[in-house]
Amino acid sequence: MNIQESLRMTSVQNPVNSVPTVISTVYGAIGHVELNRPEKLNALTLEMLTELDRVLKVWAEDSSIQLVLLTGRGERGFCAGGDIADFHQAITTGKHQDFINLLSSEFDLDYLISTYPKPLITLAHGITMGGGVGLASHAPVRLVTASAKMGMPEAKIGYTPDVGGSHLLANAPGYLGEYFAMSAASFCGADAVFMGFADVVVTDAFAENILDELDELLGLSPAEIISAIEVLHGAPESFALQQTQGWVDHAFSAQTPQEVIERLEQMVHPAAGQAAQLLAANSPSSICAAFYSVREARAEQDLRSALNRELRLASFLMHQPDLAEGIRAQVIDKDRNPHWSPALLADVFQDELRSLVRE
After folding, report:
1. Helix, coil or strand: residue 39
2. Which among 196, 145, 202 is positioned nearest to 171, based on CA atoms?
3. Closest CA to 32 of 351, 6, 13
4. What is the 8-class DSSP label of residue 15?
5. What does the H/E/C string look like for 265-301?
6. Annotated domain spans of the chain
7. DSSP E strand boundaries for 28-66
8. CA atoms within 13 A on the CB side of 111
């Protein structure tokens, strides 16, 4: 690509150090928007979300732009999700509505990406978690590098999968969705296509030079772009998760979170024991919310409804003690020793959670 032709650039500045955290550049018929907060793994702020929303809407209406690319700067990752420290400050200083407003804006952006009227290509690399998945995995064309690390880790911090994560997990093969939602485990980029979080695993060489390849894709539909990239630049997928399908489906097809744990504890498969340990370390309230949210998303099969459900759960969980405590343990103090309340699954208000997901 000739980067000199018809180049236009805008950015949103970080008010603290004046470094642009979102950079949008136009190369001819291609719009490229980049997350530029690599020192924070491109963790999302309200300002970044607002600028992403603005740029994508402008480009959607700009007839000169035929294709849009969304990437994250830095070798370590595409986007680690929302800025958890900001969330902690909001819910510990009584600014709960600010937290909800940010989430609502983020969810609307994710839905915009899912319904974008032009080919929108996302490229996930490195750490791609939570809000990063929301940006990367709802797009018309979803690319990922084999070494990317993806997942919805919210149960570790007393929260629940959001940004449409429950919808994506619900559509994963078998009951892998419940497993990853409740355990907060991650999976590699090579498994992302099998999980339904990406369309093509691409080579590192293509990922590094993607802008040089996009001219050849102008005028193609998203489906045609996916096929072309897969043929020319696709990397091998992994089938490792398929080998876990048996024990995962047996345990996580149970009708209640408690029964899931009971089945895991009764199984002799070593991976089942490891999964039981992961669930035991997470917030009991979170694993229940995740379980019911994924189940309802699978029954309903609608991204917008899933986002609305996730916002209701967020409004509930942000007033519970586990979210602040989980962020404290994982991000603030980093002692990795949260004290959950309630500490036992039997004491979780499961009727209230079931009611919230079914409103």
Report:
1. helix
2. 196
3. 6
4. T
5. HHCCCHHHHHHHHHHHHCCHHHHHHHHHHHHHHHHHC
6. 1-359
7. 30-35
8. 14
DSSP state of 127: E
Place of tokens 């519970």: 320
The tokens of 251 are what? 């345990």
Other C-beta atoms within 10 Å of 266: how many?
A: 11
Instruction: Determine the distance from the C-alpha atom of residue 262 to the mean position of all C-alpha atoms in its chain, rounded to a whole number.
Output: 29
Q: Which residue has the tokens 């590699």?
A: 188
The structure tokens listed for 101 are 């407003």
pLDDT per residue over 16-41, tens digit each?
557 899 999 999 999 999 999 999 99
Whether 206 contacts 217, CB under 8 Å: no
Residue-averaged pLDDT of the chain: 94
Tokens of 34: 């980049």
Q: Which two structure tokens, joined as six digits, stand for 255? A: 């009708």
Place of tokens 């959001």: 162
Comparing CA positions, the residue from 48, 163, 47, 76 lying closest to residue 113 is 163
Q: Outline where 6-83 has alpha helix (H).
A: 46-61
Q: What would the pLDDT profile of 231-256 be if each residue is shown by its tens digit?
A: 999 999 998 899 899 999 999 999 99
Closest CA to 129 of 148, 111, 114: 148
CATH superfamily label, 1-359: 2-enoyl-CoA Hydratase; Chain A, domain 1 (3.90.226.10)
Question: Is 215 within 8 Å of 1 (Cβ atoms)?
Answer: yes
Q: How many CA atoms lie within 13 A of 330 on its CB side?
A: 22
At 309, the amino acid letter reads R
Q: Report helix, strand and coil shares of the chain as percent, to nearest 5.
A: 55, 15, 30
Tens digits of residue pLDDT in 268-313? 999 999 999 999 999 999 999 999 999 999 999 999 999 999 999 9
For 60-83, letters b (16+ CB in 10 Å) and e give beeeebbbbbbbbebeebbbbbbb
- What is the model's pTM? 0.94
